[in-house]
Write a structure and sequence with these properties.
single chain, mainly alpha, 5 helices, 70% helix, globular
Length: 102
């Protein structure tokens, strides 16, 4: 079991409370890092989360960031994927909030 699976197992029952969809988030975390599918799915997940929190206007900026980073990756393969990183921060935030706070 990897760290994503371990954290997901601990927060699975809390995901909906934070605007995430359990099944889609689980599938996303199983995707290969750096893949186009992962980037596209992370944009969709962020849109769902932002919409559930009334921040749907911000989604267009995240989509543009994902598109730009994909183009940069063709020139510089080492570039970070900030859109996918945002999903991992979301998951880690739920973990911290639901398991470590008393």
């Amino acid at each position: 079991m990897n760290i994503n699976s371990t954290i997901l197992e601990k927060i699975y029952d809390f995901i909906g409370k934070y605007g995430g969809r359990k099944h889609e988030l689980k599938e996303y975390l199983l995707l290969q890092s750096g893949s186009n599918e992962r980037r596209d799915r992370s944009i969709e997940l962020i849109q769902d989360i932002m919409t559930s929190h009334g921040k749907e206007d911000l989604h267009k900026y995240i989509s543009e960031l994902g598109r730009i980073e994909a183009g940069i990756r063709e020139l510089e393969p080492w570039v970070r994927d900030h859109v996918s990183h945002a999903i991992h921060c979301f998951v880690l935030g739920i973990f911290i909030n639901s398991t470590l706070r008393s």
